[in-house]
Amino acid sequence: MRRRRTIGLGAALAIPTLALAQSFAPRGSQVFEVGSVKPTPPNTKSTGVRPAGGNRYVGLGIPLRSYLYVAYQVRPEQIVGGPSWMDKELYDLNAKADQPTSIETLHIMLQNILTDRFKLQFHFEKKDMRAYVLTVDKNGPKNLTAHPNPRAGDVALDQSLGPGLNKWHAHCASMDFFAWRLSQTVPDPIINQTGLESCFDFDLNFVREQFPGSPVVPPLEAVVGPSIYDALKNQLGLKLESKKAPVEVMVIDHAERPTEN
Question: How many domains does the chain have?
Answer without folding.
Answer: 2
